Amino acid sequence: MGNLPVHRVSQIKPFGRAGVDFAGPFEVKSAMLRKIKITKAYICIFICMATTAVHIELVSDLSTTMFISALSRFISRRGRCSDIHSDCGTNFVGTQKYLQNIDHLLRHDTFVNHLTSHQITWHFNPPAAPHMGGLWEAAVKSTKTLLHRITNGRVLTYEELNTVLHQVEATLNSRPLSAMSADPNDFKTLTAGHFLTMEPLVPIPSIPTTTSSRHNLTVTPRNRWALIQQIQNHFWNRWHREYLHTLQERPKWNRATLNIRLGALVILREPTPPLTWKTARVIEIFPGPDGVVRVAKVRTANGKLFTRPVVKLCPLPL
Q: Which residues lie across from 39 on neighbouring strands?
């Protein structure tokens, strides 16, 4: 397993770099009437690459206009982000049309012009590489799990579903980033909500303070800003001390392997029966900053070009 990208271990503002993914469709209705028409809605999930904070937007369809509206709401509430990362895959047969719609949406000229006006750089993961977007894939899984437990399969109105999603967002941003300390007087653990509102979005009940302690907590307007800066620095210090070291654990891919070579003959691993897998020739490799090749472009016997992660390529011993 390689080192984490720099933006995963850098001290940047929340949602300075974000990942985005879609989930759905979910059934919704316009009103609580018996014979009302049921329509579809989708969830657009943004996740901060540094603090793992989650932002959820509900959209009525996968059109370019709806997604630009969701992105504008996200920027208005969380601030402009410099880079956005997302998947880019259309190879799964069962959901090919859904993923093609997303791919077309993200590459539409109107959307590209909107990104340019906000000075946002968009980064696409190679196709068939969901493990490269594990951060937002985990956020999608947690969101869908909580949503299923809350709704229990009931069809909600658009406003009800939007309210539930905001509650799910608050719950996800109140999850501990690290284990609780052994200090019996420490009742708070670091969460993503601390970087957004300086407290968990779903906080535990606070311990009442005594009269004498309240008199000692006087804050004048002159040093109010210094107090806020001190609190923010405290959260980032805890992020470095308690959370950052947990990202150093590497439970898989512990053995180093040789980089794939140009001209190598490989087999493309696809979500189809192995007897239908195609052979291809590596025509271009894309090494990372550490020199490790994780993505390659191959050409099949019929001349088609594919960009795939190396974990989807099986070199033949020739």
A: 28
Does an H or E element contain 226, and which? helix 224-238
The token duo for 151 is 């709704």
- Alpha-carbon 235 to chain mean position: 21
What backbone phi and psi angles, to 5 degrees, belong to 306?
A: -135, 140
Please give the C-alpha separations between residue 273 and each of 19, 99, 130, 240, 269, in angstroms, as whole numbers: 32, 21, 20, 46, 9
Domains of the chain: residue spans and CATH: 8-162 (3.30.420.10), 264-315 (2.30.30)
C-beta separation of 89 from 99 below 8 A? yes
pLDDT digits (tens, 9 = 90+) for 204-231: 444 444 444 444 445 555 555 565 566 5
Task: Report pLDDT for 212.
Answer: 45
Residue 84 tokens read as: 């956005």
Phi-psi region of 19 (alpha: psi -120 to 50; beta: other; left: phi over 0): beta
DSSP per residue, 15-48: TSEEEEEEEEEEEEESSS-TTPPEEEEEEEEEEE
Show the beta-strand stretches assigned E in the chain. Answer: 17-29, 38-48, 54-59, 83-86, 121-124, 156-157, 265-268, 279-287, 293-300, 305-309, 313-315
The encoded tokens of residue 312 equal 């989807």
Measure the CA–CA gap between 80 and 73, rounded to whole angstroms.
11
Which long-range contacts does 93-99 make (Cβ < 8 Å, 24+ apart)?
A: 93/271, 93/272, 98/62
Q: Which two tokens stand for residue 280?
A: 């291809």
